[in-house]
Amino acid sequence: MPAGTLKGRSREPRALSRPTRPDSVGRAGRRRPQTGRARKARIQAAAAIARNLTAGLKPAEILEVISDRTRPVIGAGCWALVRPDRGNQVWEVTAVEVHSDSGPEARGRVPLDHPLLAPILEVPGAPVFGLRSPGPGAGNRVLPFPVVAPVHTLLPLVTGKQLAGALVLGHSTGASLDRADRDFLRLVADQAALALENAHLCEQVRAFQAKLVSRQVALEHQLKRLTVTDDLTGLYNQRDLFEQLPREMERAKRAGSACSLCLFDLDGFKEYNDTHGHLAGDRLLRTVGAVVSRTIRTSTDRAFRYGGDEFVLLLPHTSRAEAQVLVDRLRRAVSQALAGAVGFSAGIAEYSPGMESRDFIEAADRLMYRAKRKGGNRREPEGALRRRSA
Question: What is the pTM for the complete model shown?
Fold first, then answer.
């Protein structure tokens, strides 16, 4: 029979201690007659557990509620909540409550066949009372367990017909439990099982909600990316340029840092398109976009398809001289990737306080056309424009 599959709860594993009679010696060696006060305490504890075990509790909170309400009635010094992980053949010790000097509080994993917990799997669904801690035998190694006590009570937590976990009670005095105690603990176990199932369902709901939120965020990012990205080249589009450029200019103004702008287009692209067709022209533009993405500094620079065969590079924290080095490297990379099929003319402008976005773009645009008039396939720095103006 597979571990955790229940055939019923008709029998109970043989315990090492027998239930005491109502007038027999109870915990701490005292005679404990069954009084109305004891029954009332059990009823009140069971009712308090039922009220506090809500659907939103986590396993550790479930154990805390049970131990706090049950300890005055039963007197167990330490508690643990374990859940079987049959795939890995272990018990997950998900929560521990220690209220005595019986042992340290710990969590982790123990083997599925741990000698303390093995009786739960022998008769799934049946509680085990008065189980004495396994001691070291001849050549036997006793595996550690977070709840260390002379005597243990094992309460299986059954949901449906599956073993969802178990409560482990450690009795530091070694006292036995009478029939009323056992009935009370069975009721507690049923409530804990229901709470654990609710907690599991809540975990699933939270995980599903988190997945939905993550998916929604991803879709929003994708949608935003589509609105600012050029479909053909994969670079940012003109709309995004006019959003980003004022921000970078304002940042450069506040920080007193350099910012350069390069506008370039492809010489002879129209003739290439007419000769080889629009599909070939699209492939060429995609190649240019890929080369630009590989060449610029992705952490700071931003590249845009301005329109047609025109492109813009926004280069924060970059002086005109530094931008010239980058553009020369890009021009060589594009020429190599296109095998010289078209040329590359570029204008480079540097931001100065008082410039508007249109001024910045027009300065680079004028320099680009100056480069074209000089024969193309070159870059024209801003200094040339200033010398001409002078």
Answer: 0.50
